[in-house]
Amino acid sequence: MDSKPSETVPYPVKILVAGGFGVGKTTLVGSVSEIRPLQTEELLTEQSVGVDDTSGVERKTTTTVAMDFGRITLSERLILYLFGTPGQDRFWFMWDELAEGALGAVVLADTRRLADCFPAVDYFERRGLPFIIGVNCFDDGYDYDGDEISAALDLSEDIPVVLCDVRRRESGKEVLTTLVRHVIGRQAAKRAAAEATSG
Predict the structure, then answer these.
(1) 177 phi and psi angles, rounded to 5 deg
(2) Quick one: pLDDT band at residue 89, thresholds 50, 70, 90?
(3) What is the DSSP letter of 7?
(4) According to a count of CB atoms within 10 Å of the terminal CB, is the N or C end of the chain lower?
(5) At what angle do helices 25-32 and 169-198 cross, to 10 degrees?
(6) CA dist., res. 134 & res. 120, Å (int)
(7) What sections of the chain are H helices per DSSP?
(8) Residue 47: Cβ within 10 Å count
(9) pLDDT at site 2
(10) Distances (CA, A) of 49 to 44, 58, 93, 138
(11) Under a CB-based contact definition with an 8 Å cutoff, are residues 16 and 99 in contact?
C-alpha cells in the first residue's frame, strides 16, 4: 500500500509596511513580491501643495492613495501577505482597517527625514503590534548605524533595526525575515513568562 507524502499547507501571515511619505514602502512591496503587486499610486498634483510635505523627496512624482499589496513565500510553511500603508496624514484613518489581523509591521525610516517615522512607531506601540525598523539607505542619506537610529527613536532594546536597500529583493527579504524572527521571539518570551507565572 503506497503512502502519499503529507502535503505541507503554508501558513498565511499578514504584515504591514509603514512609514513616512516617500520612504520606500511601495518600492519594498514591489521588489519582494512574487506576484504582480497591487499598487494604488497616483500622480502628485497641485492640490497636494501645502498638504504633502515633499521636502527631502522633491523628485517624488506619485503617492499611494490607498494601499500596496504583495505576496512573498519565505518557506514552504510560511507565506507573507504584505500591505503597504499610505504615508500621508490624511490617509491615517485607513490604518486601523489595514492593521486588523496583522502579525507584525515593518516601519521604514529615512535618515534624511527620521522624524517622519515617529507616528508609525507610536501607532504600533499603542496597539501592541510587534514591529521592526528598516532603515532605507538612500544615496544622499545620513550614515547612522542601528544603535544610533534606535537611540534617536527611543526604541526598547529588543526592537531590531535593519539597514537596507528596499530596491534590492534580497535586502527586502532580510527585513521581512528579521520581522518574522522578532515576532516568534516575542511570542516565545510571552509563553515562557506565562508558564513561569502559572508554575
Answers:
(1) -65, -40
(2) low
(3) P
(4) N
(5) 100
(6) 12
(7) 25-32, 95-99, 118-127, 146-152, 169-198
(8) 8
(9) 52
(10) 9, 12, 21, 24
(11) yes
Tell me which residue of 107, 109, 88, 111 sits closest to 99, measured CA to CA: 107
Q: Return d(Cα 124, Cα 142) in angstroms, integer.
A: 25
Neighbours of 84 (CB within 10 A): 30
105: its cell numbers: 509591521
pLDDT of residue 45: 47
Tell me how far apart the alpha carbons of residues 70 and 66 are, in angstroms, rounded to a whole number: 14
Residues counted in the chain: 199
47: left (phi over 0), alpha (psi -120 to 50) or beta: alpha
Distance CA 150, CA 110 (A): 13
User: What pTM does this model have?
Assistant: 0.82
Q: What is the DSSP string of 170-183?
A: HHHHHHHHHHHHHH
Q: What share of the chain is helix, strand, coil (3-state, %, to 5)?
A: 40, 25, 40
Say yes or no to pLDDT of 137 above 60. yes
- For residue 178, pLDDT beyond 70: yes
- pLDDT, residue 37, reads 83
Instruction: Give the residue among 81, 84, 93 at the shortest CA–CA distance from 18.
Output: 84
Out of 24-38, 64-78, 147-161, pick the least confident: 64-78
- The DSSP secondary-structure symbol of 67 reads -
